[in-house]
Specification:
Layout (H helix, E strand, L loop, with lengths): L9 E5 L7 H11 L3 E5 L2 H6 L2 H7 L13 H15 L3 E6 L5 H4 L9 H24 L3 E11 L13 H23 L2 E7 L13 H11 L7 H12 L10 E4 L10 H5 L6
Parallel strand pairs: 1-2, 1-3, 3-4, 4-5, 5-6
Helix pairs in contact: 1-9, 4-6, 6-7
């Protein structure tokens, strides 16, 4: 990969829990490409993970706790980041997703609606709140880039993905709508990346996740993209090389999204003579 794609750029990385997290890989790659970063996660997630270890690896990056559903926390985070950087921000990674219904094995047709609201707030509306606070503070430089991680369940049914599919659909809609307004006014670009199923702490909590991964691998001409490959793609989206890409849902899935069926999958249904 080209070197110093992010030289001089400054950004906030949401959602690095441990070294299985895509956000963790993005943080490492951003720093390797010359960026300065601030790390953040919800206080409860920080207690469960090892974000301080990542911070020390990333030139002692500051860690500012923030509940992404709290506008007050988000304001403190963004103001703190700007104070640390001595100016505006160039990129933000939104890598946040959580469903109490999925965690508790609730079927999609019989959800707890309080949990459902939490799923939407944490996994999607938190992006709207982050962008709204950033815009009010005029925190992002022109041609800055915001990337949120999503999944193809926003477009296709994956039964065990539950209400997270609705959250990802909302996330992608927010990306388009806010991308228009922020782009028109401030030239800030906003995109989602629809990643292959990836072994992370959050992903592995989905029922049938191992089967998800095996099926996707057999359907994708290039195979599943791993967390490091996703991180590299995020870096290109933060760089100036993609400055005219906005309001897009970008599939990073080895071709899975455009494959109707693969010969490998067909072969599993072939009858023996």
């Amino acid at each position: 990969m080209a070197q110093e794609l992010l030289k001089g750029k400054k950004g906030i990385i949401f959602g690095a829990l441990n070294d299985m997290s895509i956000a963790w890989k993005v943080a490492e790659q951003a720093v390797a490409q010359g960026a300065e970063i601030v790390l953040t996660n919800a206080p409860i997630a920080m207690r469960m993970g090892s974000i301080n270890d990542l911070a020390s690896q990333c030139n002692n990056a500051p860690v500012i706790p923030a509940d992404a559903t709290s506008e007050e926390d988000l304001q403190n985070l963004i103001e703190g980041a700007m104070e640390h950087f001595g100016g505006k921000i160039d990129f933000i990674l939104h890598s946040i997703g959580m469903s109490p219904n999925v965690r508790k094995g609730k079927h999609y047709t019989d959800v707890n609606y309080n949990f459902y609201s939490t799923t939407l707030d944490v996994s999607a509306i938190s992006l709207h709140k982050t962008l709204a606070v950033a815009k009010k503070l005029d925190a992002i430089n022109e041609w800055g880039s915001v990337v949120a991680l999503t999944y193809i369940a926003a477009q296709r049914i994956f039964p065990d993905y539950g209400d997270m599919a609705d959250a990802k659909s909302l996330l992608e809609s927010i990306t388009r709508s806010f991308g228009y307004h922020y782009g028109t006014e401030k030239k800030v670009r906003i995109n989602t990346i629809s990643q292959s199923p990836t072994i992370t702490t959050a992903g592995s909590g989905v029922k049938g996740f191992d089967e998800f991964i095996a099926y996707s691998e057999s359907m994708s001409p290039l195979g599943n993209a791993d967390a490091l490959a996703c991180a590299d793609y995020c870096i290109t989206m933060f760089s100036d090389l993609t400055r005219y890409v906005t309001m897009q849902n970008l599939f990073h899935d080895g071709g899975f999204s455009n494959t109707g069926v693969s010969m490998e999958v067909i072969s599993k249904f072939s009858l023996e003579a």
